[in-house]
Amino acid sequence: MQRVNFHKPQALYDVAATRLLEQQAQQALPPHTLMSRAGLAVAKLALAVAPHAQRIWVAAGPGNNGGDGLEAAMHLQRWGKQPVVSWLGTPDQAPEDTKTSWLNAMGAGVPFVDTPPENFDLCIDALLGIGSQLREPAGRMADWIAHINSHGAPVLSVDVPTGLQADTGAACTTSVKASHTLSLLTLKPGLFTGHGRDLAGCVWLDDLQHGQASTVAPSAWLGGEPTTAVRAHTSHKGSYGDVVVVGGAKGMTGAALLAGSAALHGGAGRVFVSLLDDRAMPLDPSQPELMFRALETLALDTMSVVCGCGGGADIAAHLPGLLNSAANLVLDADALNAIAGSAPLQALLCARGQQQRTTVLTPHPLEAARLLACSTAELQANRLGCAQQLAQRFACTVVLKGSGTVIAQADQAPVINPTGNAKLATGGTGDVLAGLIGARLAQGLNGFDAACQAVYQHGQVADHWPQRQALTASQLAHALA
Known about the structure:
- This protein is α/β, with parallel strands linked by helices and 481 residues long.
- The protein contains 16 helices and 18 strands.
- Strands 2-9-18-17-16-15-14-13-10-11-12 form an eleven-stranded mixed beta sheet, sandwiched between helices. Strands 1-8-7-6-5-3-4 form a seven-stranded mixed beta sheet, covered by helices on one side.
- A hairpin with a 5-residue loop joins strand 16 (397-400) and strand 17.
- Helix 2 (33-49) crosses helix 3 (64-78).
- The mean pLDDT is 95.
């Protein structure tokens, strides 16, 4: 068993892949072995996260997730704790493994009650597992979830918090908010994107002594910390590439300057800014390193272009030329909105992919929904699938921002970024991310690696920021150095 950290990439398996691994394990083991191991792992973690807890409420569902909870209750009873089980199942309708765990719990003297206890030191949420459909809990289950969330005691969820969809991170309105989640056999994507980060708490993994079979490919990856590149002593500014930021229409100059600042602090060799405002500033006194140029004077075929930050409606007129000529292209904000509303621009974007030129899209959920012609709710209900759909449609790298940002590319499994928090929920942080991706492209990374590294570093700054101090976008850009 291990606590999941974000230092190295970790494989994620959706429900179908997990079921396949489960079948492989069951074929090689005696009956009930996996549930026995799962229940023991849950009981051990319960002791580890709440060592002083005596009265432990096990809220068990009717299926195999509930069976894991029943098995854990047996161990806790034998170890001198005071577990009490509320079970939504019945022995005559329970799956065979769950029925065996019920017999084990009864044999150990575990008390079963119909009404959840008012007082408990720890709750084990074993109501619904990875096989549950995303539908609102009702009746006793809904009442029990409300009791779990309102009580204040720590909560250990088995596999996934009840109400969270394991593949997508979508969640019911009535869902368990866990302090800890023990993911069994595999790590599930939904724990790290969408509502997963808010509901799962601290995530742990126990592979039930099986490991992941090499024949089953991961469905996605949890991103790991990128290695720090060492700059050669003989290098010079030309070694780290040129970035040009195209944006900053009237009243929105700050967005382009933030992207430029991020590119500077992200290590680009030179950073140019081409503002769309007719009254373009000749110099930014706070960042004199930024060089202001008219777009037509720049050799875009040798540069990494960051386009759209504060672009407004003016950016649309420049997109055909940029899509045709930019060596590397990051499309953000208003550039994405313009493309979403224009079939000719979408055709040019697809053509870039066919020519194998690097393009990175950085939409937030509303922008991504516009590109896919769906609602934001539909997109958020399947973040990984929608990011992959965008990447395939436009043959590019997609950075779908949000809680558990998804980085997708058509030819490989998507990556869920594990860093970042709500301090990034402020104006301008997306411009900073776009500029940082531009810097990574200028330094020679491919689109997917540039996006993964930039998104991780962007979120890492927020994770290391003082807890009670707000994080502005300009502070974020400066902290990238």
